[in-house]
Amino acid sequence: MEKQAENSDSRVKLESFLAGLPEEDASGLRAIASRMDEFERHALPVRGIERELRIPFLIAVVLFAIGLFLIFSGGWILVQARRTIGEPGLAALLGALPGLAAYYAYRVRWRTRADTQNFDLNREHFLPRGAIYFPATDAQGEAWIVRVAPDSGYKPKPSKNDKLKPGWIW
Residue 5 pLDDT > 90, yes or no? Predict the structure, then answer.
């Protein structure tokens, strides 16, 4: 959804937005917002997991690179590596990175599902009414609505900074 200039008119509280709608629409959107809040509560525990896994990721990359070097070097180096760490050790070196990737995928599965469901609910219920609903991002946070043009649709425009975020690799 296109990024709107943040000013006092484009960002409003949910109840303020719903007050301008007919009661029938407002109660339906309130129920949808409640579902989206519930999805966000399930996703909240793993928000920021990329920062937690930054150091393990770097370690896994180094171990994987060492394992590849040992396997493809052949000859004397490979023989010494097999004597020193054995076949299970080589397998552990090569399995560090795929293992971490599998762990990450397992941990974020609920976050991914929640984000997808929230996106679909926003597109189906809020966007036609000229809004995007953002659930609270923490327990004490506040949910809010951003007003957009109803016909703007979804047009992703990645910014230059998207490539610089710590989680871009994932």
Answer: no
Note whether residue 105 is domain-resident. Answer: yes
Q: In which band, very low, low, confident or very high, does the pLDDT at 48 lie, cut at 50, 70 and 90?
A: confident
Q: For residue 6, is it within any domain?
A: no
- From the number of C-beta atoms within 10 Å of its C-beta (0-12, 13-18, 19+), residue 133 rates as buried
- Can you tell me the distance from the alpha carbon of 139 to that of 152, in angstroms, rounded to the nearest whole number? 31
* Number of structural domains in the chain: 1
Is residue 54 included in any domain, yes or no? yes
Q: Is residue 1 part of a domain?
A: no
Q: Please write the tens of the pLDDT for every residue from 107-166.
A: 888 888 888 899 999 989 888 888 889 887 766 677 888 888 766 555 555 565 555 555
Check: pTM over 0.70? Answer yes or no.
no
Contacts of 89 (CB under 8 A, 6+ apart): 81
